Amino acid sequence: MKNIQISKFKAQCLRLLDEVNRTGEGLTITRNGQPLVVVNPAPEAHTREKFGVAKNTGKIIADIINPAIETSEWEILN
């Protein structure tokens, strides 16, 4: 892991962040020789197709066309 003083980090921030991302190596930013913060690359995002993830997991166990009760029993239709 590379160490860098905070004043140098401030001057080269974007380049150093790109380097951390590219190499995968962390960076320790120091102040007065003491570690202040550690910068590590973000973990890779696990992207997965969301559409269709439940395909073929359901099971029809009853009649899905006809109502479960007679329409004459529906209060809302009266």
Q: What fraction, in percent, of the residue positions are helical?
A: 10-25%
Outline the low-pLDDT stretches: none
How would you classify the quaternary structure? single chain
* Structural class category: alpha+beta
Integer average pLDDT: 88
Global Rg = 30 Å
CATH architecture of the domain at 1-41: 3-Layer(aba) Sandwich
Largest sheet: 3 strands, mixed
CATH topology of the domain at 1-41: YefM-like fold
Strand content: 15-25%
Strand segment tally: 3
- Please tally the helical runs, counting DSSP H or I stretches of 4 or more residues: 2
Question: Can you walk through the features of this model?
Answer:
It contains two helices and three strands, in the order E-H-H-E-E. The N and C termini lie far apart (76 Å). The chain is an alpha+beta fold and 78 residues long. The protein has a domain of 41 residues: 3-Layer(aba) Sandwich (YefM-like fold), CATH 3.40.1620. It has a three-stranded mixed sheet with strand order 1-2-3.
